Amino acid sequence: MAYSIRFPRRHDKADRNGRYAVRLCITKNKRRKYIALDLYADPAYWDEAGEQFIILRNLKGAEQKAENKQCEAGNALLAKYKVRAREIVERFEIEGIDWTLNQFEDAFLNTSKQGKFNAYFTDRIAELHATGHIGNSQTYKQTQDILKSYDRKLDQRLFSDIDLRYVRGFDMFLQKRGCCGNTRKFYFKALRAILNRANAEGVGSVATYPFGRGGFEVSKLEEATAKRYLPAAELSKLKSTTASNPQCEYARKLFLFSYYCYGISFIDMAMLTAAQIKQMEDGDYIVYKRQKIKRQKGVKPISIKITPAIRQLIGSLQAASPTVDDFLLPIVTRSGYTGERLYMHIRARYSKYQKYLRLLAEELGIDFHLTSYVSRHTAAMTLQRNNIPREVISQMLGHADLETTNIYLDSFDNEVINEAAKVL
């Protein structure tokens, strides 16, 4: 890979002492970039051809000796800069990175973070937090924290250290801690996302990337979970039975609202506003983008027609508890919350909702572990039982691909299997 490293002196602008800045010039593919070094040269003591300071020999006087000493220090610094520049280029080439001049500049000026995995990880968490991706930032922070428990020298690790052997050791560490396959998958997906982004930005190590073909297979960590969808009889009971406990009744209505709205998640329910109700030719619709993927490119909004059942639930929930700001449902109870403060408030409300669902199941005699996810899975399974194509179900759920929908639906219940067996 053709490149050159030089240290030319400027000629256009001198400082107040008549000295001119010496800069590093990196050239690649006939393009060049200059990097300031905070180093200045007096023209009388600068070798233009050799691009170094001139050391005058056999001259007496304290002033001349001091000048020579300063020139020697300047040359030593130039030699150090040249070594650093070459090491950066060599590292890029070893790792198979087709580097740009901007990448070189960033590497040269940020040597304390150069190639450091954990420093990049920390910056990514801060970036997500600053841009309002609070949930993702917390997911990455949890992964970073568990990695610190696994590796006490994490701060010293380069991207090239996070190789196949390293991630296999991390997996063994998680297993010894009693982490199930799905929990391990949670951590490895975050780790993989960090490495993918670093590679895309040209700061990672492509050569030692531990995932992909022949590498560590995150998908194989997934374990089958217990059924998350309600049997038809239990769903009917939930629809027709009013809970005596007000908190349980609140949870029941939210659960049914989620179910009728194609299994809308709790965070998406909480963030719905009155402005998201749109009037169309055939009625009113709730139109929203999932919080989880709304910033991804090409994400389409989900449109839910407001049926009499949905309208009745909205009115009933609003009558039981006033809403704040422009929120559609009384989930957010504090006015003026935004950003992380709003996110943490919704998380606290989510924990209470999960508790109320457990109490609701006990009160109604529903022999099922009732959670917020159950409404989403139940909606998906109900649609499938009524012969709705999976492609349509996938769109209604707001999934990015059909594979995710298949995970929801591939675990058929005995009723479906028994019906299928009748044709034998």
UniProtKB/TrEMBL annotation:
Keywords (A to Z) from UniProt: DNA recombination, DNA-binding
Family matches, as InterPro entries: Arm-DNA-bind_5 (IPR035386), DNA_brk_join_enz (IPR011010), Integrase-like_cat_sf (IPR013762), Integrase_catalytic (IPR002104), Integrase_recombinase_N (IPR010998), SAM-like_dom (IPR025269), Tyrosine_recombinase_XerCD (IPR050090)
Gene Ontology biological process terms, A to Z: DNA integration; DNA recombination
Record has Transmembrane helix as a keyword: no
Domain Tyr recombinase as annotated: residue spans: 225-422
Keyword Ion transport: no
Protein name in the entry: Site-specific recombinase XerD
Species name: Alistipes shahii WAL 8301
